[in-house]
Amino acid sequence: MESSNPNPRQPEAELEESLYAVRQKIQPRAVHGWFANWRVSLVLVTQLVYYGLPWLKWDGHQAVLFDLAARKFYIFGLTLWPQDFIWLTGLLVISALALFLFTAVAGRLWCGFACPQTVYTEIFMWLEEWAEGNHLARKKLDSTPWNAVKLRKRGLKHVLWFVVAFWTGFTFVGYFTPITTLWHELLAFNTGPWETFWIIFYAFATWGNAGFMREQVCKYMCPYARFQSVMFDPDTLIISYDTSRGEPRGPRSKKADYKSQGLGTCVDCNICVQVCPTGIDIRKGLQYECIGCAACIDGCDQVMEKMGYPKGLIRYTTENALKGKYDDSGILSHVLRPRVLVYSAILLLIVSAFLVTLANRVPLRVEVIRDRLTLSRTTDAGYLENLYTLQILNMENRPHRYTLSASGADNIQIAVDEKLLQVGAQDTAQVPIRLQIDPASLKGPSTTVIIRVQSEDNPELVREVKSSFLRR
Question: For residue 121, is it within any domain?
Answer without folding.
Answer: yes
